[in-house]
């Protein structure tokens, strides 16, 4: 018998003690006039459940002539303490009737009482269930989170939110009320998706709002005005990355405020921007990408892959990105892709998988065509980000079969390898063949308990299966288990984790495609089935596909590891039709033909073209021809990557007189 079987009953009994009017030995006065309430409690429980209350009790010992100990908690509201007291006694917390501000009050009170377990839980609960409210009330959330070092989860969430959407957050806030600590954290964030000149403008704006008596135009500043602004911003200026500001931006936006900069620091900056060294001018175009899928952190990493650099290497090039095609805007049809992208080289395809946060993509250094052929290259690669918000969880897969690097066909979208990353309309599939490693796989079967439905959400249980020890047939998935306010199962019922059954995910070691005969050897296909995508009914087995067959070399084959439902044979020992919990259709062994073969649906996809500056562009496009692209030519989520070399600097006007604007976009 498990040790925790009796815990629910114990919790229930302890909660009843709260209503005891005979054996209590302490009274707690909570709140301030006129909202004060006195609670009865038991010192032994408070002493072992809260370090803070233990210290209070040690300094408020009962005197000889007193019957009860009496303490005061004026900083906590009575209704908030009522919730916390139930947690202290019974280890239970019901938040279903609480709105977000009340939950934050509970968090603050729990922190005051040093209930660290509750503090951690409440932070994660707020982040998971109240994201929209937090964005709308970001200033309040931020100030609350940084008022105490215990709110680390909230602090990390706020910092991450700032880095991903600083402009949105700053515009939604009362700018004058932003604390200096918050602004410093924004300015020094290396992952901030905002150009440095925008950061500078926000810093100046904040300084002016702190001193409303100052003129809005620095031309009207007195010496004293500059000193006031300098003192206000002295903690912020050291964190501004002036090296990422162009000379023009420095001249137009920074110089008018030069008197707020330390003298020696200003002299060093002036030397930098007057120096004709190639690195004297940088651009922030990389951070201003117009994408619905990726951020500039993704672009930095992809750019390094294009240049064949390690992720720790410093990039030689900076990049500018211009959208030319987006699926949700221009359509997912293959003919639209070829209409816009044929004859374009050095493109990067970005795909957001429908139903999760996964990102797939590939780089094609050569031109797209519509000639139903494979094209060779040694520089293409495909990649994936398991979680689009985390660039660290990525897979990079470079080409190994060069002759099959890129597949061109007017009925397909961007396609890499024989089957490694294939797009057709708003669907695609990934099966390793021509590239060094797979970038995507279907969910692993052992993580699903086939035939076991969660009695809360009614989906097949994934991960840990929680079985009620009191009910005959009641199960919860790991997502619903902690949501007592949703599943409403009796509080005194205990749950046990049940191991996954190996018999519930039985799958063939060597699948038989019944009714499918190899058109080369005339045998029923076992294992991988290769179906020609050009011919109506032509299939090869794995052996014939790898060896000699007389089918045209330019015909593309799609691999199928699992049999199709159309080939189901009730007498087969291998095939057992069931309901697929991934795509919710009839399939085999709990994972369907579609899911088993790496297929996915596309929510959005984008494509970029990479261009190197100074008139020497990658591929056949020149700086001038790229500039002449018409806006209406933009098209399935395709982006142009305009890769600009760092040495687009101040000396261009002398060295390249035909190029009049080093800031060409």
Automatic annotation (TrEMBL):
Residues 24-97 form the BTB domain. Residues 449-503, 513-565 form the ZZ-type domain. One of its GO terms (cellular component) is cytoplasm. One of its GO terms (molecular function) is zinc ion binding. InterPro entries: BACK, BTB/POZ_dom, BTB_POZ_domain_cont_9, SKP1/BTB/POZ_sf, TLDc_dom, Znf_ZZ, Znf_ZZ_sf. It comes from the Eukaryota. This is Serine-enriched protein. Residues 292-440 form the TLDc domain. Keywords: Metal-binding, Zinc, Zinc-finger. Gene3D superfamilies: 1.25.40.420, 3.30.60.90, Potassium Channel Kv1.1, Chain A (3.30.710.10).
């Amino acid at each position: 018998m498990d040790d925790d079987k009796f815990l629910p009953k114990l919790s229930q009994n302890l909660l009843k003690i709260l209503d005891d009017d005979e054996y209590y030995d302490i009274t707690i006065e909570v709140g301030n006039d006129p909202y004060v309430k006195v609670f009865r409690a038991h010192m032994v429980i408070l002493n072992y459940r809260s370090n803070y209350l233990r210290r209070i009790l040690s300094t408020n010992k009962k005197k000889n002539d007193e019957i009860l100990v009496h303490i005061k908690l004026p900083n906590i509201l009575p209704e908030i303490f009522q919730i916390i007291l139930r947690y202290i006694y019974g280890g239970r917390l019901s938040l279903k009737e609480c709105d977000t501000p009340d939950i934050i009050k509970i968090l603050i009170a729990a922190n005051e009482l040093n209930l660290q377990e509750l503090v951690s839980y409440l932070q994660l609960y707020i982040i998971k269930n109240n994201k929209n409210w937090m964005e709308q009330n970001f200033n309040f959330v931020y100030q609350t989170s940084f008022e105490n070092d215990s709110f680390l989860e909230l602090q990390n969430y706020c910092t991450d939110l700032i880095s991903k959407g600083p402009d949105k957050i700053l515009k939604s806030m009362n700018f004058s009320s932003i604390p200096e600590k918050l602004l410093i954290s924004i300015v020094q964030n290396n992952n901030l998706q905002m150009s440095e000149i925008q950061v500078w403008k926000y810093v100046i704006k904040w300084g002016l709002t702190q001193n409303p008596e100052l003129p809005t135009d620095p031309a009207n500043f007195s010496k004293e005005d500059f000193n006031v602004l300098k003192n206000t911003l002295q903690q912020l200026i050291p964190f501004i990355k002036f090296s990422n500001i162009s000379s023009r931006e420095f001249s137009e936006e920074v110089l008018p405020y030069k008197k707020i900069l330390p003298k020696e620091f200003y002299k060093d900056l002036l030397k930098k921007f007057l120096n004709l060294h190639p690195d004297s001018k940088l651009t922030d175009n990389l951070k201003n990408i117009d994408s619905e899928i990726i951020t500039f952190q993704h672009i930095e990493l992809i750019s390094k892959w294009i240049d064949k650099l390690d992720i720790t290497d410093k990039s030689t090039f900076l990049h500018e990105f211009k959208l030319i095609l987006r699926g949700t805007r221009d359509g997912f049809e293959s003919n639209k892709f070829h209409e816009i992208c044929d004859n374009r080289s050095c493109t990067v395809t970005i795909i957001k998988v429908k139903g999760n946060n996964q990102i797939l993509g590939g780089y094609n250094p050569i031109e797209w065509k519509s000639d139903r052929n494979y094209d060779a290259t040694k520089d293409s690669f495909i990649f994936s980000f398991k979680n689009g918000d985390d660039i660290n969880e990525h897979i990079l897969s470079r080409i190994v079969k060069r002759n099959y690097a890129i597949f061109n066909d007017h009925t397909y979208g961007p396609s890499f390898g024989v089957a490694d990353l294939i797009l057709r309309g708003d669907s695609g599939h990934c099966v390793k063949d021509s590239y060094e490693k797979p970038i995507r796989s279907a969910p692993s079967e052992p993580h699903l308990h086939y035939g076991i439905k969660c009695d809360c959400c009614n989906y097949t249980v994934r991960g840990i299966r929680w079985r009620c020890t009191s009910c005959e047939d009641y199960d919860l998935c790991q997502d619903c288990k902690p949501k007592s306010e949703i599943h409403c199962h009796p509080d005194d019922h205990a749950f046990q984790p049940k191991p996954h059954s190996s018999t519930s995910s039985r799958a063939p070691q060597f699948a038989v495609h019944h009714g499918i005969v190899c058109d080369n050897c005339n045998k029923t296909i076992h294992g991988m089935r290769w179906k020609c995508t050009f011919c109506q009914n032509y299939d090869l087995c794995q052996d014939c596909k790898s060896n000699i067959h007389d089918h045209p070399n330019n015909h593309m084959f799609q691999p199928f590891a699992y049999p199709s439902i159309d080939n189901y044979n009730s007498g087969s020992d291998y095939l057992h039709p069931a309901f697929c919990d991934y795509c919710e259709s009839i399939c085999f062994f709990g994972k369907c033909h579609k899911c088993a073969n790496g297929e996915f649906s596309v929510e959005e996809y984008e494509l970029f073209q990479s261009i190197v500056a100074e008139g020497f562009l990658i591929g056949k496009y020149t700086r001038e021809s790229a500039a002449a692209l018409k806006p209406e030519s933009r098209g399935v989520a395709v982006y142009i990557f305009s890769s600009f070399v760092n040495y687009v600097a101040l000396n261009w006007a002398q060295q390249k007189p035909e190029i009049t604007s080093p800031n060409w976009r």
